[in-house]
Structures are given as C-alpha cells and as structure tokens.
Design the sequence.
C-alpha cells in the first residue's frame, strides 16, 4: 500500500501512514501448509516519515519497532470495530540496495 504523507499537522511534523503485510506459513496438516497474511497499520512521524516516503516501495522488507495503540469505533450499521496501529520509533529497511549498472566511458 502506498504511504499517505501529511505535512500540515498541528505540531508541524511530517506524518506518514501506511500498511504492511506480515506473511506467515501455517501447518494445517502434516503435509499441507498455507500462507497467511496479517495487515498492520503503521504511523511514522518526523524524520522517519520523510524516510518512508523516500524509500518504501510495494514489496519492501522492513523491520518496525514502536508502540501499539488501539481504538474502538462504531460503523454506520452500529457494529463495533477495533483498529490497532503501530506508532513507529525505528524503521529498518532490510532490502538490499539495487545495483545500478556502471555508466561511463568505454
């Protein structure tokens, strides 16, 4: 998911919201394994937000540490929903840098 970038916060800090997928293989039987994905909401502030906008692409591998925040709200039908968001303190980009071919005199 593409990061949403907001720069006009009351605190004048950059804010970036995005989602990541955590993929996990689960054994259903001795022979069968299925892939499960959990989608996590992430919020980054300040310099971390600027870095995410500059470096995060779909499929990027990241390690995020931070604090969990949970909120409960009602949708139009009256049903209650709970949303959990990680406020990132550290974001490590685990992708290897893309090698660009040398362009120069032959």
Sequence:
């Amino acid at each position: 998911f593409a990061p949403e970038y907001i720069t006009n916060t009351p605190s004048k800090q950059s804010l970036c919201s995005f989602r990541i997928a955590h993929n996990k293989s689960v054994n259903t039987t001795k022979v069968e394994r299925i892939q499960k994905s959990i989608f996590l909401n992430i919020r980054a502030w300040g310099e971390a937000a600027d870095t995410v906008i500059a470096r995060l692409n779909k499929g990027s591998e990241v390690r995020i540490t931070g604090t969990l925040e949970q909120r409960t709200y009602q949708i139009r039908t009256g049903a209650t929903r709970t949303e959990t968001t990680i406020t990132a303190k550290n974001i490590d980009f685990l992708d290897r840098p893309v090698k660009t071919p040398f362009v120069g005199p032959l």
User: Anything to note?
Assistant: The two ends are 41 Å apart (CA to CA).
